[in-house]
Specification:
Elements lengths: L2 H12 L4 H14 L5 H8 L16 H12 L3 H11 L2 H16 L7 H13 L5 H15 L2 H12 L8 H12 L6 H11 L2 H17 L13 E5 L5 H5 L3 E6 L3 E7 L4 E4 L11 H10 L5 E9 L10 H4 L8 H7 L2 E11 L2 E2 L5 H11 L6 E3 L2 E4 L4 H10 L4 E5 L10 E9 L1 H4 L3 E12 L8 E10 L4 E8 L5 H11 L3 E2 L6 E2 L6 E3 L4 E6 L1 E5 L14 E5 L2 E6 L11 H16 L1
Parallel strand pairs: 1-11, 6-8, 14-16
Antiparallel strand pairs: 2-9, 2-10, 3-4, 3-5, 5-6, 6-7, 10-11, 12-13, 12-17, 12-18, 13-14, 15-17, 18-21, 19-20
Helix pairs in contact: 1-2, 1-9, 2-10, 3-12, 4-5, 4-6, 4-8, 5-6, 6-9, 7-8, 10-12, 11-12
Bound molecules: adenosine-5'-triphosphate (ATP).
The site of adenosine-5'-triphosphate (ATP) has 14 residues, from strand 1 and strand 2.
Length: about 575
């Protein structure tokens, strides 16, 4: 397939923000794509080369790409830099400078999707002393043969700045329409995606065998399962109506969720975002296999920092010492972790996803030979009346609350539903609710905050549309050190224009490529005409906003923007607080 076809489709997709139109463009493209290239195209549309859990990153710096562009166009580096400065996008700058070359020297061979993809993969995998030089050479080889329009997208892919705004849901719709007989088949494709976390693999299977092939997707080792998530309840009275008279209450520990794939061959560990985090946890790799008798299993656990002498849980911050690129070995001995298992999804060739919670828990307890560092999360069977006491026990043990689980519920990969409920300290202490929000923009600070971002514009994830909708500005709760590190983290992502996925009635001083998620506590959810979260859900022309939002000090590295709090959650909080006010 010619890359020009793909570049043309990218251009059309960029030109629309309407989901139906975007889906139609995708369907046209997918139908035109030979089945063997469908996976490749699916990754490229998402600006990726492989599924996230494989950790294949291009990591091409702007400078390197700019140099290669200048060389291919036969212009001085300053010409590329000038265009980049005025337009803000290096892909567009590349198209601009190559356009002037096109009239004079352009007589190159046509490039194909496969060639671009293979070359990008080579660039991503280049390592070692000469890797920069190699990368520059690969880039030039592509750009020498590329038309200006092709170059635009090659550069965006290289830098990771492809922003077509295609949410996973839109992609699944398009795949269902193209290959599985229509949108009705989407749940089957979605299930396949939830058990594999690999949209390219799902796409390729659907292209070859339609919905039937998607139905055949099974959980497999080293392919992470998208996590089942919990709904929040404000107080214990919310439990029984959803879970029945008897349910399980487990300690909700405050650490990092890890999905452990322990097999004979190797141990893989995936974070809540399904990134490979094995390098941070060499001790987990060593500790787990002997405790499960060397079985092959996919387990879910909360990794929590512990005091090695007493076995007591330590706060979340202690665990963050592990999240560093260098010196992990030192952190492993200085900040030991415990592995607190709470689910088993697969064991010795058998998927347990369709087993009820009670059976999975029994299997888990039966297979773990527990010790101080690897054990099952404390669990009890209870009804609503027992919750206050259990909550007390949980707090005394250093947990942040309880997870309440329906006994007959299967494992619902990739969904947040009412079969798991989280009950946190907030209801007890009458503390504010906390939400995980995406930083989408900022306003420059004044006074002591001059030269930094004084206030951040935050957004929720509107899951059905794949947009990020603004919900509040936050300027309190930041220490000077927080402001400094937030500036360091955010400024490389600063842009003059709003990202296409962001919906807001506010004009920020700078906008960001959405990637950072922070935790914010707020005293109340209110209605606002300016913010766009949950627009029209309660009152026409009004969205939700947060009253007195405050940064809690916690950056949610473990969450991507798609995993931030949703408008549905806000709506539930709004309804809950109004009910409480009336009571
Ligand atoms: P939160 O912001 O409350 O940590 P979250 O959005 O990260 O939640 P939720 O599904 O809402 O994810 O809450 C469940 C999280 O709580 C899990 O992702 C996991 O990290 C953690 N957790 C701690 N203990 C348990 C447990 N016993 N069972 C399931 N999850 C647990």
């Amino acid at each position: 397939m010619k890359f020009a076809v793909l570049a043309g489709a990218f251009g059309r997709m960029e030109s629309t923000s309407k989901r139906t139109e975007l889906t139609a463009f995708l369907v046209d493209l997918l139908r035109e794509t030979p089945p063997e290239s469908v996976a490749t195209i699916t990754y490229l549309i998402q600006g990726k080369l492989r599924p996230d859990f494989e950790g294949v990153e291009l990591g091409v710096a702007e400078k390197l790409a700019a140099r290669a562009i200048a060389k291919s166009a036969g212009v001085p580096a300053s010409a590329v830099a000038d265009r980049f400065k005025s337009g803000g996008d290096l892909g567009d700058a590349a198209a601009g400078v190559l356009d002037s070359r096109a009239q004079t020297t352009f007589a190159a061979e046509e490039i194909t999707v496969d060639r671009v993809y293979e070359t990008l993969l080579r660039i991503a995998r280049a390592s070692g002393a000469r890797s920069q030089e190699m990368k520059a050479r690969y880039i030039s080889s592509l750009l020498n043969d590329a038309t200006p329009d092709e170059a635009r997208y090659i550069v965006k892919l290289l830098l990771g700045t492809m922003r077509l705004g295609v949410a996973e849901n839109t992609m699944l719709d398009a795949l269902a329409i193209s290959f599985a007989g229509g949108k009705e088949a989407r749940p089957e494709l979605e299930r396949a995606y939830n058990v594999s976390s690999d949209l390219g693999r799902v796409a390729s299977a659907a292209a070859a065998g339609g919905a039937e092939a998607a139905r055949g997707f099974e959980i497999r080792m080293y392919s992470p399962v998208r996590p089942m998530l919990a709904e929040r309840v404000r107080d214990p009275s919310g439990a029984e109506p959803r879970l029945g008279a008897e349910f399980a209450a487990e300690f909700k520990l405050d650490g990092e969720r890890v999905q452990i794939h322990a097999g004979g061959e190797r141990v893989a560990i995936f974070s809540r975002r399904l990134e490979d985090v094995a390098s941070y946890y060499p001790d987990i790799i060593e500790m787990v296999p002997p405790r499960i008798g060397g079985r092959e299993a996919i387990l879910e656990a909360e990794a929590v920092a512990v005091n090695e002498e007493t076995g007591a849980f330590l706060p979340f911050q202690e665990l963050m010492h592990r999240r560093r690129k260098h010196g992990v070995a030192g952190a492993v001995t200085k900040y030991p972790v415990s592995v607190n298992l709470f689910d088993v999804l697969y064991v010795d060739g058998r998927s347990l996803l369709c087993e009820p919670y009670s059976a999975r828990r029994e299997i888990l307890e039966g297979m773990v030979d527990a010790d101080q560092r690897v054990r099952c999360v404390q669990a009890a069977r209870t009804g609503g009346a027992g919750l206050d006491d259990l909550m007390e026990d949980a707090f005394n043990a250093g947990a942040e609350g309880l997870m309440l689980k329906k006994l007959d519920s299967t494992y619902q990969a990739g969904s947040r539903g009412s079969n798991w409920l989280k009950l946190k300290r907030e209801y007890r202490d009458d503390l504010a609710d906390s939400l995980d929000l995406v930083v989408v923009g900022a306003f420059f600070g004044r006074g002591r905050r001059t030269g930094m971002y004084g206030t951040l514009l935050l957004a929720t994830n509107d899951a059905p549309t794949g947009t990020l909708t603004s919900v509040c500005k936050v300027g309190t709760g930041f220490t000077d050190a927080d402001l400094d590190s937030l500036y360091q983290m955010l400024s490389p992502d600063a842009r003059a224009r709003r990202d296409r996925r962001v919906v807001s009635g506010m004009e920020a001083d700078v906008w960001f490529d959405p990637s950072l998620v922070i935790e914010v506590a707020a005293s109340e959810v209110t209605l606002s005409p300016t913010h766009k979260a949950g627009m029209d859900a309660v009152r026409k022309g009004y969205g939700f906003a947060l009253r007195f939002p405050k940064f809690t000090g916690r950056i949610r590295d473990d969450k991507s923007p798609e995993q931030a709090s949703t408008n549905e959650e806000l709506e539930a909080l709004y309804a809950g607080q109004n009910k409480a006010a009336r009571a």
